[in-house]
Specification:
alpha/beta; five-stranded parallel sheet
């Protein structure tokens, strides 16, 4: 088999897996998360996002899209990623442990009525599980956007968006998490436009 044939086969397989994962997404789970975000923003509470690695980058992308979606309709959204301050992350990791990077920040700035959203391909990262447990102890609503089989986060959280993929198939899982972001941000923007017109 030639290099071109191998490449074409790989890409066809990737796109097939991605399309299958998209077809498994439950629109009602996206709606539940969108409504939780909107309720949190309307109450002047915080939306706090948690993620590791690629999901940390995705968390920052959510912040951008949600703040901009609300801002374009004249509303202020208090949305923050707990992975966007490298000085704080490395300080906590160095002085305490990497396992505490989310629990430490949530104790410092989270509170009742806030919404914590964990983004994870596996749903099993120990620091995310600890973060969600800390958020629940603080009286926060919790949500998970997960891939693979959902992992433990899918069992712990109040709201779950599960983009089911093969275990270990990170690319499609992380692609789906951005699709969820764009769908929800688009919905919240459209709702905001409708409410002001």
């Amino acid at each position: 088999m030639s290099t071109s044939e191998v490449g074409a086969e790989f890409l066809a397989s990737y796109l097939t897996r991605l399309q299958a994962a998209i077809s498994e997404l439950d629109p009602m789970s996206l709606l539940r998360l969108a409504e939780a975000i909107d309720r949190t923003v309307a109450e002047g509470r915080q939306v706090l996002l948690l993620g590791n690695g690629g999901s940390a980058a995705t968390a920052g992308h959510y912040v951008n899209d949600l703040v901009m979606a609300y801002g374009r309709t004249g509303r202020v959204a208090r949305v923050r990623s707990l992975t966007d301050n490298p000085a704080l992350i490395t300080g906590i990791g160095n002085d305490y442990s990497f396992a505490e990077i989310f629990t430490f920040q949530l104790r410092a700035s989270g509170g009742p009525g806030d919404l914590a959203i964990a983004i994870s391909a596996s749903g099993n990262s120990p620091n995310l599980l600890a973060g969600i447990e800390q958020a629940q102890a603080l009286g926060m609503t919790t949500a998970a956007i997960v891939g693979f089989d959902g992992g433990r986060l899918a069992e712990l959280c109040d709201i779950v968006v599960h983009a089911a993929t093969g275990v270990g198939d990170y690319g499609p899982a992380e692609d789906l998490h951005l699709i969820v972001n764009h769908a929800i941000a688009g919905l919240l923007y459209a709702r905001g436009v409708a409410a002001t017109s």
